[in-house]
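Illustration: Peptide methionine sulfoxide reductase MsrA.
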Amino acid sequence: MRPKYLFAAALAATALASPAPAARSETAVLAGGCFWGMEAVFEHVQGVSNVVSGYAGGDAKSANYRDVSAERTGHAEAVRITYDPSRIGYNDLLAIYFSVAHDPTQVNRQGPDTGPSYRSAIFPQDARQKAIAAEVIARLKKQGVKVATKIESGTFYPAEAYHQDYARKNPNDRYIVINDAPKVKQLKAKYPARFKG
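Result:
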């Protein structure tokens, strides 16, 4: 059994009691391997209105696929998730991130993809998100999960247009079939109340 399947029990205790913010829209920036799969998962989450593939952790000049793929920019492939906090909390997004969207025990890799641009990293958008992310990681580690995920800072830059909605537009692509479609199926199985078709 892969370690990530054990995360659900550890994450059950991370539902931090805090009132939903008054805002109807917030953003989260998460990195966990190829952004195609991360985008595909979060596009199917109730309360999420938009997911954009991009780069985080480097500068604007090098925020392009050619340079990021060369592994010299400091960027991670990431997604920017826009969500309604009255419908889904940030801690719930992190539960999906840690248990379905990627394997946070991997260092600088996910599946067939290797290098720092495929690292597991959370880019909090405010102090509250940073505190929640730190609490979730601490609880997972306390449960014995060897979490490689780091909390980082940096601006998010959208990726090139051809990367956006890649899994939805290319469902028969071999990479998507092997690596990303199973994540969406797992989301539906593990979180049926959170899944949108």
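Reading the tokens back as a structure: The chain has one domain: 3-190.
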